[in-house]
Amino acid sequence: xxxxxxxxxxxxxxxxxxxxxxxxxxxxxxxxxxxxxxxxxxxxxxxxxxxxxxxxxxxxxxxxxxxxxxxxxxxxxxxxxxxxxxxxxxxxxxxxxxxxxxxxxxxxxxx
Amino acid sequence: xxxxxxxxxxxxxxxxxxxxxxxxxxxxxxxxxxxxxxxxxxxxxxxxxxxxxxxxxxxxxxxxxxxxxxxxxxxxxxxxxxxxxxxxxxxxxxxxxxxxxxxxxxxxxxxxxxxxxxxxxxxxxxxxxxxxxxxxxxxxxxxxxxxxxxxxxxxxxxxxxxxxxxxx
Amino acid sequence: xxxxxxxxxxxxxxxxxxxxxxxxxxxxxxxxxxxxxxxxxxxxxxxxxxxxxxxxxxxxxxxxxxxxxxxxxxxxxxxxxxxxxxxxxxxxxxxxxxxxxxxxxxxxxxxxxxxxxxxxxxxxxxxxxxxxxxxxxxxxxxxxxxxxxxxxxxxxxxxxxxxxxxxxxxxxxxxxxxxxxxxxxxxxxxxxxxxxxxxxxxxxxxxxxxxxxxxxxxxxxxxxxxxxxxxxxxxxxxxxxxxxxxxxxxxxxxxxxxxxxxxxxxxxx
Lengths: 111, 168, 269
Description:
Chain A is of the alpha+beta class. Chain A is built from 2 helices and 6 strands.
């Protein structure tokens, strides 16, 4: 699956280390070693964006580990994708967002 | 260390069809398979042939002492793919019989020499050769450090499924 | 001695026992379904097994956990221990790799399996297991059982045996895994509560699955040439091809391209 060039460029302005791979008919975007919002522990990690509908979520952001943050979140989304185990908290965002918007909306609860 | 080679049935059938085409001067055809890899454990290496390049007709040499002799252009083309993709390279040819196929001495010598060349352009990968029969596959492979892997399994995955023991 | 032991299954073919002994088979989930599978595999002669289960034997498992005893539940034995004991009682030279945990925690041994059985809970688990099996080009046979209560009518006992064969239609193609069902399960946070389970129905499914595996490996019927999706009606006792098979796509599976195998390869965007 291809992504719009302008959306990719916009994403890379903030998150330069971005790669993609497909699995099970879905293309995932991995943002490597990003800085999480202030107050999170760990402070940096890889995250995996699923920009397509999966398991009832219009998009989802998975984290390489569960994150300790200022807010209490329901980490209910353990999954295995692209030969790694990932973790997600329950958080729905509206569909139709650009890639960068998706990532930022999914990070918002960690602030 | 073991090598486990898995090739999809449909792909096997397509390659076999190509290898069985008659050639004006060569008794057998040959080609090159490029394989993705994985590890099941430090001692179990997995290989998945996913791309096939047939040797072009013009690159065969007339040679009564061997089934298929091909020129350096054929080898260079394969090495280029290997270098570009970083995949493992497996030279492949076919025998016209059912049952487990075996490499001849000439086959072994060819594969061993080719493996050394492929290690130069794609170090860090396993290289070698496969021989097909009409219903089985045998493998002969070398590790990146130049060890020949003597144990493993080769499977044709699909319908019918075929699990073979043979890594020669 | 070996010939005599397996003489009653010699109809599988002259090379069959060698293939069976050589095959490395994974069983993910050693509960009601998986324990049956393990028992049958050991009887048939499989001796190269990779077994996964995180759980301990509980009292409520004893209505169906093949090989488990009252003592196992009292001393909180692991399901892995029960399976190991069962296999080794029949195949003392078996090469067993056992993982007391979810396969996702230690996936390496699963990759080396020539064939995998899944007897897991939940559709998402099945989906993840299928993805792994496809990535490492491994046929995956799934079994599962369910009971649906329907008001004043008798409960419906149903199950399935489904094969995901690389190169052929996957669970999504076959309509076995559907987005709406996965979404519903995710909304329950994956916990649908204790699932009804009975030994005889598990036995039907496990037997069917093991029979399918032996056929795949030995090709003794000379007829296993296409997708397998069997549905079990536990009320009537009938196992039959699922009606959805008629709608399975004829071409290549769009969800798992044939070259999407091995270690994931990332491309820079």
